[in-house]
Amino acid sequence: MPSRGSISPGVHRGEPRTVAEGETKAEREIAIDLVTRIRNGSRDAEDAMVRRYGPGLLYLLKRRTRDPELALDLRQDTLRVALEKLRSSPLEEPEHLAAYLRAVALNLLIAQRRKDTRRATTADSDAIETVADEHGGPFENVSREQVRAATTTPVNFKLVREAGTLECEGSFREGRGSGTWRLVPSQAFRSGMSARGYDLTDEQMFTATMIDVRTGFVDDLKTIGFERLDFEDVVKAVIFKITPQFAAEMKSIGFEHLGLEDLVKARIFKIDAAFAREVREMGFNDRDQSMEELVKLRIFKVTPDFLKEIKGEGLTLDSIEDAVKLRIFKVDADFIRRARASGHTDLNVEELVRLRIHNRVD
């Protein structure tokens, strides 16, 4: 049976919960525990905070920026700023850690927009123009010219997918649109998914159409060991492109038995064979690195150039943790030189961090 709905300009209903929303008593207790342990120097607590709040921050920033690359950079900066604060001074309301992280993320976004010299188009325009393209976009019968027209332009277009066809009718003006939609689900797809163990609801059929779930993709997941995923995990795998090719690439760099969550994490933080080679260039090749360590390198932007500058100042780094710590506390080559100029000669990672925390360098 077809489903129907309406579309309004600039309105997003059903947005998944992000950080700082719906804080329960248990969540507040977890936040207080994390803040306390981070203040006491617990690296495990830092990892736990990144795992717990990182995905929500990324989702929030992606929705606000419509730019995955910028969202990832801002999320990394948010975590770095927050960890620096939590390690060096108490948080006034530790039970509201999620709200604090959200505020940091949005403040960084505001600062970024102020630095941006070009005038951004609306989110609606960005999203539609990505697909409203006569050269291969998924929507049929709508062009960029129609979307951006200065006057109200009636449109009728379709999104045709294996799971169904979304028929849209409405109008656009200057990149913003409104109208109605009608989903005609594919019974062949529904039957095919049922044969594979998925009896989909109408809402799930809508989701499958919008993100382009395919029966062949579900079959591919089985070839890499994911035979009993629930539908939500299938959706996650589609969104993050968890393919046999990607699983094989991760296996080639030593990760042979990753679960779906770890593969998704690898996609989010752009951990692949090229990054593994980059890590080896950094000198961290004395042992196999864990996924968590590679994630930290990404989050805190530990790069070969950064390490080259640090080592050029004669500093020895014994581990990834040392490199991450320098990034968290913004210890760079210039800071090391200024520390020496201030009379501090016996420098190591811990001493440099102490000097940064207590502002002992001119």
Which descriptor suits the 3D outline? Answer: globular
- In which range does the helix fraction lie? 55-70%
Strand order of the largest sheet: 1-5-4-3-2
Query: Overall pLDDT, averaged?
Result: 82
Would you write up a description of this structure?
- It is a single chain.
- With 362 residues, the protein is an alpha+beta fold.
- The protein is 56% helix and 10% strand.
- Among the domains are: 25-115, Orthogonal Bundle (Rna Polymerase Sigma Factor, Chain: A), CATH 1.10.1740; 123-213, no CATH class; 304-357, no CATH class.
- It has helices at 25-39, 43-65, 68-88, 97-115, 123-131, 144-148, 187-195, 202-211, 215-223, 231-239, 244-252, 260-268, 273-281, 291-299, 304-312, 320-328, 333-341, 349-357, and strands at residues 3-7, 139-140, 153-161, 164-173, 176-185.
- Strands 1-5-4-3-2 form a five-stranded antiparallel beta sheet.
- The protein starts with a strand and ends in a 5-residue tail after the last helix.
- 27% of the residues are buried.
- Residues 7-22 and 117-137 have low confidence and may be disordered.
In a nutshell, what does this entry contain?
This protein is α+β, with helices and mostly antiparallel strands.
